[in-house]
Automatic annotation (TrEMBL):
Belongs to the small GTPase superfamily. Arf family. GO terms for biological process: establishment of localization in cell; system development; vesicle-mediated transport. This is ADP-ribosylation factor-like protein 16. One of its GO terms (molecular function) is GTPase activity. Keywords: GTP-binding, Magnesium, Metal-binding, Nucleotide-binding. The gene is LOC107265773. GTP binds at G6, P7, P8, K9, S10, G11, K12, T13, G57, N111, K112, M113, D114. It holds the Pfam family Arf. InterPro entries: P-loop_NTPase, Small_GTP-bd, Small_GTPase_ARF/SAR. Mg(2+) binds at T13, T33. It comes from Cephus cinctus.
Amino acid sequence: MCLCLGPPKSGKTFLLKRLHGDSIDVATPTVPTNGMNLFTIKNSDGHFDMIVRELGGSMAPIWKHYFDRVGKIIYVIDASNLCQISAAGVLLYSLLVEPRLQNVKIALVLNKMDLSYRQMRNEALLMLHFTRLQKEIPQKIRIIETSGMTGEGVEELREWMFDPDTLKAATIAAANK
Ligand SMILES: Nc1nc2c(ncn2[C@@H]2O[C@H](COP(=O)(O)OP(=O)(O)OP(=O)(O)O)[C@@H](O)[C@H]2O)c(=O)[nH]1
Ligand SMILES: [Mg+2]
């Protein structure tokens, strides 16, 4: 199972709709996810599907009820809102120390790049203490810059999701259950 997590309004639903191939109406705001959404995402040639479970940011206190059999996490941060990043980091750290998530692969998605300037990537990673963090944790984190609005980075995220190494982690997590 692949989970999509991140603070409220970081753009999870929008990004997953984009990955799913829904037509995006950029003028209509999405509704906050008060619960969960399930999306079936296809790989680039359309031969394989993966189910992604989005848990709303407002559900963060109960995300832990969904950590069994998780192989991959897409963790979405709004990179255009540096004020939110420290809080996003605290939530991310709570995932990294969770015993059931020691073997997961994580995509740290810096989203809303259409609203960000390039340097924000570095500022966001500095605020998350990313370089130090990556040395100290067992999980492998891949950084992907995206915009649900323009579609930037969406195919890179899809490739990461269907990467054979990442899939292996998901299969082992399911088998260990
Ligand atoms: N400019 C811009 N706006 C975005 C982008 N992605 C999402 N938004 C906007 O951000 C708002 C929140 O997006 P959602 O996808 O609902 O956020 P979410 O992370 O699913 O929020 P919760 O379900 O409440 O946790 C919406 O108004 C979107 O239109 C993006 O890449 N760029
Ligand atoms: Mg949502």
